[in-house]
Amino acid sequence: MNRRKFIKIAGIGGIGISFPACLDHLFTPAYSAEPDLAVASGSSAKAITKAAVDALGGMKSFISKGDIVVVKPNMAWDRLPEQAANTNPHVVAEIVRLCIEAGAKKVRVFDRTVNDPRRCYIQSGIKEAVEEAGGTAEYVDERRFKNVKINGVAIKEWPLYTEILEADKVINVPILKHHGLAKVTMSMKNWMGIMGSDRSRIHQKLDQSLVDVSSFVKPSLTVLDAVRVLAANGPQGGDLSDVKTVNAVIAGRDQVAVDSYGAALFGVNGSEIGYVRLAAEQGHGVMELEKLNIRKISL
Predict the structure, then answer these.
(1) Share of residues in the chain with pLDDT > 70 (%)
(2) Measured CA angle at 121 (ends 246, 130), to 5 deg
(3) Cα separation, 215 vs 152, whole angstroms
(4) Are 237 and 83 a contacting pair, CB within 8 Å?
(5) 199 alpha carbon, distance to own chain's centre
(6) Across 174-216, where does the E strand assignment appear?
(7) Superfamily of chain region 3-298
(8) In the chain, what are the domain boundaries?
(9) What pTM was estimated for this model as a whole?
(10) Per the count of CB atoms within 10 A, which of 101, 149, 272, 297 is most buried?
């Protein structure tokens, strides 16, 4: 990970984001057709989350009255929000609130954490934020994993969490951050939090394994948190000097497109991130940003 290149291209200086100049021509005016991706920037995490979802037609475009919804953030680490190891709690809470406002019967939030789950849920700020927004933050029950046939290239079957398989709708809410093995962790990497068994077994074929699982789950919406970005020493981090304030949220239906845009904020092409490239090559989404209708919203 070239940290200097990241800071230069993403224009991070602690007061917000200057979008990469190479992407300026991709943004479409507000009056154009519904975008493939919405990129919202501003000082309020809640406001830019809502703006990004609204640009895609609003939460009612994704959630129907009576739906049981799973919102899947990254809250794997015993870290505070300012350390940017977990999804921003305000982003998660706003997604929960929008789902309930759209008529969801129940919104369930969980993650199979790496560190102690009770500490992760509380230290991340996500449990409290979700409950205040009207959702339920549930600890993963290890008895609730079900072996399913994925029929992927690297993974043929794997135990996945039953609640995500039975949900009416699934919304993926990862954080954008550095990862020592995957280079950058985003939406497709976030599905490791629904996998049972020994997840370290997929590290030998990590990129293809992530593609296999993500193509099986197929979320209705992906919302990438780039409010605070862990630019180095991920995925756990800990040093505040590694955290850069970007104040952006990227939303879309296509996980591959969302992750390709996230890669661009790190100063690399989507094709340079193994799981993004493989997913695109295997027809699971669009990696080439120039082929997408991308709308920028600045608040």
Answers:
(1) 89
(2) 75
(3) 9
(4) yes
(5) 19
(6) 175-179, 183-185
(7) LarA, N-terminal domain (3.40.50.11440)
(8) 3-298
(9) 0.90
(10) 297
